[in-house]
């Protein structure tokens, strides 16, 4: 439980809507923020939780939470509650989180290119080489003339 919960804290970040103006985009959730998310829905779910208890779960001090707490934690992070109890579900969700993280970090078109190349049987090494060639061609086109830059950017949409 502790490792899976810590994974969610490590990988899932607050949305821009959840942050204050002074907060840093991309920072981790706090125990209090997750507790507040769960407690905000207590009228509908009947579930409340403390930040201290979430901390105990993260550290493994508390290791057998009520089913309602498992569901509430899963909901707060936007994952299926099976993540905490089913190894296959946990792997599937972790794969999805990894893909989403990569999509955010990279240009979505680059991810799509990787998938197309992999679907056509190219190795990871070949795919990396093609990505490097595309990046180099893009850099050359952007540096060659002012008009080339807008043409290349226009192709990115």
Tell me what you see in this structure.
With 157 residues, the protein is mainly α. 68% of the residues lie in helices and 0% in strands. It has 9 helices and no strands. It is elongated. The chain starts with a helix and ends with a helix.
Unreliable spans: 145-157
Q: Radius of gyration in whole Å, from Cα?
A: 21 Å
Q: How far is it from the N-terminal to the C-terminal residue, by CA?
A: 42 Å
According to DSSP, the number of beta strands is 0
What structural category do the secondary elements indicate? mainly alpha
Largest sheet: none
Strand content: under 5%
Order of helices and strands: HHHHHHHHH
What is the number of helical segments per DSSP (H or I, 4+ residues)? 9
Helix content: 55-70%
| Tertiary shape | elongated
Mean pLDDT: 83
Features:
157 residues; mainly alpha; disordered C terminus
Entry summary:
The protein has 157 residues and is mostly helical. It is 68% helix and 0% strand.
Produce the secondary structure layout.
Blueprint: H1 2-11, H2 31-40, H3 42-45, H4 51-59, H5 67-77, H6 87-105, H7 108-119, H8 124-144, H9 146-155
Helix pairs in contact: 2-4, 2-5, 7-8, 8-9
